[in-house]
Amino acid sequence: MGLKTWIAVSVVIIGVIFIMYPEPHLTPKVIAWKEGGKYLQYKSYQIFYRVENGKTNDGSTLLCLHGYPTSSYDWMKILDGLKEHFSKIILYDYIGFGFSDKPDNQTYTIMEQADIGERILKELKVTKVHILAHDYGDTVALELLARYNNKENKDRIPGIQTLCLSNGGIFPETNTPRPIQKLLLNPYAGPIASRVTFFFIFKTAFGEIFGPETVPLEDDLWDFFVIILHKNGHVISHRLMQYITQRTEFKDRWVGALKNTPVKVHMIFGPADPVNPDSFIDFYKKSVPQHGITVLDPKIGHYPQWEAPTAFIDAYSTFIRKTKS
């Protein structure tokens, strides 16, 4: 048997072992997060969301949009800090993510993720909203912003009062997908790579996007991992990854929305981010000089709200106090 045959057989064996391996159990922390939420019926799917009561009585609402490949659980560390500024906080898992349904025959688009956000806001009778977004969520937020700017679907679009972004690849020119992302984008290798997902591979690849001194503890990485694998989410990783090509396809719409909006916008940025290197900072300042940016400690990477929750909340608090005053 030749080397290529041995490699092919080995890949098949590993894949079969993984497919037959039972889904890992959710941890107590993850179960507590899940039990604090509800489900919205969207088409034939169940969408997970949470509504948290804040500490203000001004009626303000914050919508939090999470990143790839994780979930609304990303905001767990700063949730208490956010409650200081709002009456209500809404978090949801996009279709294909977290505790929402993850159909394996779905074409996943940023447009539909934004549709789901609109649907939740309508269900909760929210007419004005502040948005806080991260990574993939930045692009979902920009689609919502484009609709708001252009007064599209007037009956559905709530008034966007402020927008805060963080470490998203909003400019294709400064975004550098990781090797695993490029692999998942490959039409042939992507579906195979999606299925062959082990914790060791995950924690190595995922850990690299954090700052060198702020990589999550192994228990936290396991929490992220089991949420991704919940409902066989790993199987559709290659389908979810298409957002990268969508960013290029709809660049004029989404970057244009950021350039032309009357909404007050701020960016909180962790500069030790291999996905969006620090060259992003100057590009952002030149592209949208009317919008502010807070650059965190040089050691903070792609998940600033998880790596530096206190600094993140301080930066966000400064922004939101100015805009709400």
Explain what this protein looks like in three dimensions:
By secondary structure, the chain is of the alpha/beta class. It has one domain: Rossmann fold, CATH 3.40.50. Helix content is 44%, strand content 15%. The chain contains 15 helices and eight strands. It has helices spanning 3-20, 28-35, 79-83, 110-123, 136-149, 179-185, 189-195, 199-207, 218-229, 237-240, 243-249, 251-260, 279-287, 304-307, 309-324, and strands at 38-42, 45-53, 61-65, 88-92, 128-133, 159-166, 264-269, 292-295. Strands 1-2-4-3-5-6-7-8 form an eight-stranded mixed beta sheet, sandwiched between helices. Helix 4 (110-123) packs across helix 5 (136-149) and helix 5 packs across helix 12. The longest helix has 18 residues, at 3-20. The radius of gyration is 19 Å and the shape is globular. 41% of the residues are buried.
Task: List the keywords.
eight-stranded mixed beta sheet; Rossmann fold; alpha/beta; 325 residues
Principal-axes shape call: globular
| Rg, nearest Å | 19 Å
Question: How many strands appear in the DSSP assignment?
Answer: 8
Quote the beta fraction. Answer: 5-15%
**CATH architecture designation:** 3-Layer(aba) Sandwich
CATH topology heading: Rossmann fold
Helix-strand category: alpha/beta
